[in-house]
Amino acid sequence: QITLKESGPTLVKPTQTLSVTCTFSGFSFNNDATGVAWIRQPPGKALEWIALIYWDDDKRYSPSLKNRLTVTPDASKNQVVLSLANTDPADTATYFCAHVSWTSGSFDFWGQGVLVTVS
Amino acid sequence: IVMTQSPLSLSVSPGEPASISCKTSQSLQHSNGYNYLDWYLQRPGQSPQLLIYLASSRASGVPDRFSGSGSGTDFTLKISRVEAEDVGVYYCMQALQTPDNFGQGTRLEIK
User: Cα–Cα 20 to 30 A to B34, which of A32, A77, B97, B111?
Assistant: First the structure.
């Protein structure tokens, strides 16, 4: 059974770096051809894809955020860390991580999400 | 790839059908023949869940009243008989190439 859970500070000051950790179980970057995606959702708005990291350390970033965004895996801990630098109140959102199906590219399992407020 | 959903909201009586359209600015058909289009449902206060992948395959545990169809740039999600638990926002997403893009979302409410 695949599970994911996001954690991290829920309040960040503008210009600081936002960091959210995704801790997962049921799959491994060491043994499985898979990936973890990051999606965010500002309050009352639509979903926005922001990043994806594959098991082989291939990383993809949203063009609008790539200058501020870093995704770092820690295979030994089954974690992926999302870091967003130089934050702005517009970065206030619920941040989700999701398991990426290797066969379809779909996000078949999602974490509960964590609301991060930049203020 | 730009994703355009319609309608943006719909109100349906229980037991009635519902249909949501998703049109894309580029074909989502891979050289392997599959169309890399997903449908997700986000119920109020919950994380999104995968309903349909590869345009027409139902995800595990999804009731068969949900069906997906389409190819290329034109896709449809149909609910044969809407139930109260189907309330929420439906999103299409293309998984053909990064950045994966979501549609604007379609809000379904029960009359």
Answer: A32
Nearest to B35 by CA among B76, B93, B96: B96
Decide if B102 and A47 are in contact by the 8 Å CB cutoff: yes
Say if residues B66 and B51 touch (Cβ distance below 8 Å): yes
Percent of chain A whose predicted confidence (pLDDT) is above 90: 88
Report whether B97 contacts B35 (CB < 8 A). no
Q: Are strands A48-54 and B49-53 parallel, antiparallel or unpaired?
A: unpaired
The SS3 assignment for A89 reads helix
Give the residue from A118, A106, A119, A101 showing the smallest Cα distance to A27: A101
Contact (CB, 8 A) for B20 and B38 = no
Of B36, B50, B104, the CB nearest to A107: B50
Q: What are phi and psi of B85, to 5 degrees?
A: -75, -5
Segment A105-119 mean pLDDT: 97
| Chain pair A-B, CB pairs under 8 angstroms | 63
pLDDT of A33 reads 81
pLDDT attached to residue B88: 98
